[in-house]
């Protein structure tokens, strides 16, 4: 049934990989905005505030499920670990993720509906986590197009299921349940169908290898978790000091920040293997040139987005979400600057991972997250939503500077060693 869908000419693989990577990255980046828009339209701003906080928490918890492993797996060009080990490790990390979610909602003292929505959105992210590990496998095999197709179809289907269910029932909990069922079924069917092209094996619980893999990727997991926490800290401060309506407004204004990350993702994923090979083969000039190309593109895109956001951002967001955001232009611009710093930090994270210096990420993310935790509450109490924007941008800028300093130091030491 799917044979023609997966079998394509070898000359077309590169083009389709670019297209489907763009398609899947685009869908993944806008899904939270689309679902939030639908919830706002059908259930109102208060429900949108609850949903947005739950979705943000699920994205943070997904970093435990993914364990920061995708970039490591995609750059594992020496096949140090088999797909069987990656599969088994993903089962382990997703169990840890869901236990962590239960602990989180209990610690935060969420009431039943808020807790259940958060838990269900995290279960939906479990399907994202398994999609991710197979996507990394296809990428290593030179078939990033397959990874993009599966993600695109799965996200499109569960988003449609969520929207239709909410239209007919206005029930957030039921809508989340339907999304989980649809996403799970489609993922299983599509992954199974790829066996005609790329052989797959069942998970193998070789605990010594799983332990070694988890140990190597632990800094990436903690770094990814802290990276999302850094962005969520202002939201938790809003949850503590402001209203669900304010939470929704902040999330509306925060949405354009993902645009920079979207375009960076387009450029970054196809270049990951090339970056890794240039580093492994000690082609350092080529490596630096590729890094510079990515940064230059991200800087150009960020400048355009900040300028466009300052002029058109709030009017467009007001129309899209049906609320008046005209008085929040300053908040939006500050957030867009923070989003640019965030995108640059993601690039730096990948570079340090390719250099196999991922353990040092803990320093940068630890510092930035500590700053976010310390200043978010203070700034939100004093400046409300503008304070939340300041907190996000200050912590993102700190992270960017710390990681940039580390990269320059490691490149300098490598250059000095090779003289």
TrEMBL record:
Stored InterPro entries: Poly_Biosynth_Transport
Membrane topology, record value: Multi-pass membrane protein
Annotated localization: Cell membrane
Regions crossing the membrane: 20-42, 48-67, 88-109, 115-134, 155-174, 180-198, 210-229, 249-272, 293-321, 327-347, 359-380, 392-413
Residue ranges of coiled coil: none
Record keywords: Cell membrane, Membrane, Transmembrane, Transmembrane helix
PANTHER family reported for this sequence: O-ANTIGEN TRANSPORTER-RELATED, PST FAMILY PREDICTED COLANIC ACID TRANSPORTER
Annotated protein name in UniProt: Lipopolysaccharide biosynthesis protein
Naturally occurring in which organism (per UniProt): Ruminococcus hominis
Lineage: Bacteria, Bacillati, Bacillota, Clostridia, Eubacteriales
């Amino acid at each position: 049934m799917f044979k023609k869908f997966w079998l394509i000419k070898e000359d077309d693989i590169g083009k389709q990989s670019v297209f489907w990577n763009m398609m899947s990255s685009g869908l993944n980046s806008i899904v939270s905005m689309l679902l939030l828009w639908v919830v706002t339209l059908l259930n109102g701003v208060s429900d949108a505030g609850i949903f947005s906080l739950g979705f943000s928490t699920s994205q943070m918890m997904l970093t435990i499920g993914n364990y920061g492993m995708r970039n490591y797996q995609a750059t594992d060009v020496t096949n140090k670990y088999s797909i069987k080990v990656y599969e088994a490790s993903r089962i382990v990390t997703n169990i840890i993720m869901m236990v962590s979610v239960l602990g989180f909602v209990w610690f935060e003292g969420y009431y039943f509906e808020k807790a259940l929505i958060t838990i269900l959105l995290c279960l939906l992210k479990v399907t994202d986590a398994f999609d991710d590990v197979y996507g990394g496998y296809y990428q290593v095999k030179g078939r990033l197009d397959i990874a993009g197709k599966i993600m695109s179809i799965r996200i499109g289907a569960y988003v449609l299921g969520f929207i239709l269910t909410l239209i007919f029932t206005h029930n957030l909990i039921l809508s989340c349940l339907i999304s989980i069922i649809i996403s799970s079924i489609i993922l299983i069917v599509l992954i199974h169908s790829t066996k005609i092209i790329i052989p797959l094996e069942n998970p193998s619980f070789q605990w010594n290898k799983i332990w070694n893999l988890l140990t190597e990727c632990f800094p990436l997991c903690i770094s990814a978790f802290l990276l999302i926490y850094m962005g969520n800290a202002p939201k938790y401060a809003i949850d503590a000091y402001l209203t669900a309506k304010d939470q929704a407004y902040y999330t509306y204004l925060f949405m354009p920040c993902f645009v920079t990350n979207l375009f960076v993702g387009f450029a970054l994923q196809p270049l990951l293997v090339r970056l890794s090979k240039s580093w492994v083969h000690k082609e350092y000039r080529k490596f630096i040139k590729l890094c510079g190309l990515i940064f230059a593109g991200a800087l150009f895109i960020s400048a355009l987005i900040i300028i466009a956001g300052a002029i058109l951002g709030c009017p467009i967001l007001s129309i899209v979400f049906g609320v008046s955001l005209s008085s929040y232009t300053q908040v939006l611009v500050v957030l867009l600057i923070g989003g640019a710093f965030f995108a640059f930090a993601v690039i730096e994270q990948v570079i340090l991972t390719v250099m196999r210096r991922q353990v040092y990420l803990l320093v940068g993310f630890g510092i930035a997250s500590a700053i976010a935790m310390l200043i978010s509450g203070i700034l939100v109490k004093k400046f409300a939503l503008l304070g939340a924007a300041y907190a996000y941008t200050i912590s993102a800028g700190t992270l960017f500077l710390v990681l940039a300093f580390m990269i320059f130091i490691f490149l300098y030491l490598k250059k000095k060693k090779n003289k």
